[in-house]
Structures
1.
Amino acid sequence: QVQLVESGGGLVQAGGSLRLSCAASGGTFSWMSMGWFRQNPGKEREFVAGISGRTGITAYATSVKGRFTISRDNAKNTFYLQMNSLKPEDTSVYYCNSGNTWGKGTLVTVSS
């Protein structure tokens, strides 16, 4: 059974950077496709970025393209989301997802 654990959230000023990590266990990591999503209270969870399992092809929401980068380290069974040029509207709880499995989320707060 796949388990995902996010880390790396925190408080940062606008224009700053954070790197989120998602540690995966219980699956064949190198084959896992994975996505980062975010959700604010009262709103639907939205796609942020994704990376395919075997090809490594990436995709990004328009709102983060050029600022965020998704990557993976197969040796560490970990996915990353590097977030640069953060904006207050990036404030959210960020979740990693693979298939039907979700992490518990990590809070990112961007102050203006």
2.
Amino acid sequence: QVQLVESGGGSVQPGGSLTLSCAASGDTYSYGSYSSGCMAWFRQAPGKEREGVATIDSVGTTSYADSVQGRFTISKDNAKKTLYLQLNTLKPEDTAVYYCAADSSPFLCLRNALAEPKSFGIWGRGTQVSVSS
């Protein structure tokens, strides 16, 4: 059984940067089923629906929401069993709880996975990112 734990959130000023991490517990074989599938970051601001931020597939192909394109970067280190999200040029509207998610389906990232949060099989508990001056 794989569990995901996010870290790295915090409070920053507009224009600042953060690096979020999502560490996976469990054996390497179980983690491998997810890293060979589809991994993603979502976020949810107060009073809003959960929003897809970025996905990464088994070979490292990435996709981003238009709102974060060019500012955020998703990556993963399979040896460390960790998913990352680099957040640059942060804006107040980026304030939200950020969640990592994963699914073993290799097909999920081939379609619009950012719009399908319910398709992801496992989730972390989230880490808060607050951007204000």
3.
Amino acid sequence: QVQLVESGGGLVQAGGSLRLSCAASVNIFNIQTLSWHRQPPGKQRDWVASFPKSGAANYADSVKGRFTISRDNAKNTLYLQMNSLKPEDTAVYYCRLWDGDRGYWGQGTQVTVSS
């Protein structure tokens, strides 16, 4: 059973930074795709960034240049470094693992950016 546990969320002022972590219960070295998504209050869940097994990372236009996705295979952990945060980045952030057959979600971590 795959389990994903996010951490690192919190309250930060606009312009600040946070680093989110997503610890996986499985070896992520051969995982097809790891990604971050977010769900603002009252809105749908949207894709933020992906880190495929091969190829470059991809970002939503709204976070490009401010967020960086990375992975540490030795620690089975996915990260999201978020800089220059804006109030519109306020959301619950989820990590997702796609193993080629099905996707798994974490429980989410709240990020709140005050103006």
